[in-house]
Amino acid sequence: MKTDFNQQEEYRAFLNNIRAEREEPTNLVKVVFTIVTAILCAVIVCIILVENNFFVNSIPSSSEDITGLFKFSRKQRNSFEVPFAPRRQNILLLGVDSNGDGTDRWEGTRSDTILVVNIDPRTSSIKAISIPRDSKVYLPDNHGVQKINSAHALGGVNLVKKTLKETFGIKIDKYIIVHDAAVEKIVDALGGIPIYVEKKMYYNDYAGHLHIDLEKGNTVLNGKQAVGYLRYRKDGLGDIGRTQRQQWFMKSLFEKLHSPQVITKIPEVLNIANNYIKTDMSLYELSQYASMARSIHNNSIEISTLPGAPNQKGAISYWILDPAKTQEVINRMIYRDKPSLDGVKFKAGIIYSPKRESDAEAIKEKLTDLGFETNTLKLTHLSHSRFVANKNIVTMDFFNWMEKKLPEINNFQFVYDPTENFSVGSDFTIVLAEQ
Fold first, then answer.
1. pLDDT greater than 80 at residue 137
2. Is the pTM of this model over 0.85?
3. Does residue 411 form part of some domain?
């Protein structure tokens, strides 16, 4: 165990490192050809995060039209320029369902996925809040108490935006709406998405035309399977389990998008997007955001779900938000509040699968050498490895510092979860699953 003096030296070095990194200019210069690819990335990211996703009123319907917009040499470079101003913006991503064959894709449809993405061009970082669709809220314009996913069905995107502003104080700058038919088509166009299915998933909803039959283990999901994986809720976790799968699916999607083979899929994906994605963003705005998205890595993306607890009222199941913790998440993710880390001593936790016991012991030893009090817990059913911030004082900067000290957690997904579902009396928890 290191002395208090050595611990203070470690933290002082950590804080100085953060200050130095903030002073370094961010290189956002990209080849135009890469920007075109990044547009595809932005489309797919929306699809994945939003369980069913797609965008665009403004994208041309053919590959010939889109290529005409980018007649530049590969040697010519564009710098990233944010539309309007270099300020943070909140992008609303909605995944909407279908009312049946022959109905309007956008009118009267519920939003099964609601995601607010806070983009900061100055730091090239993204913070995303997933709002459980069953969240119990009061809808404006005299619609009364409802599940938040009813807002789009009752008043379209304007009512959703108004609900977010009046309920959470979140002002939406732009929106992207994706129809649920898009996910299946996009995944198939990409040739499937590799994923680790954490458990046997079997479910049939004949009325809703949803049939899920997935075996546990590594697999490549086709379009229908991806929809089933993203919509599966019969695991005792309901919306929260589904939200977690959206996040894991997003991570796999990011990895897929970095493969060179994706470039050849652009025309087909754009054609799908033209029919199944709706947005108030222009092609120029989309290209600018996509340019930034292409430069963002996992250690600049933070995801959280609004905390609460399930509650049954008669035949209706609600997600009751925790007011204090919900505000804490919003302050962190939307307003980018950062607590002071001077003098803070974190408590570490490790939750691990039986097969990862030796890895857990090795990481615990390193954490102890760094001066952390560390608790461990062995669990038999762990789906994905990740780094979980249980307390607001555990920031992305701290995680990036930890990655340098613990290469074992490099490329781990960072999740902020104040509900402490994965915690062993710890401020942060390293989850070591078999995968």
1. yes
2. no
3. yes
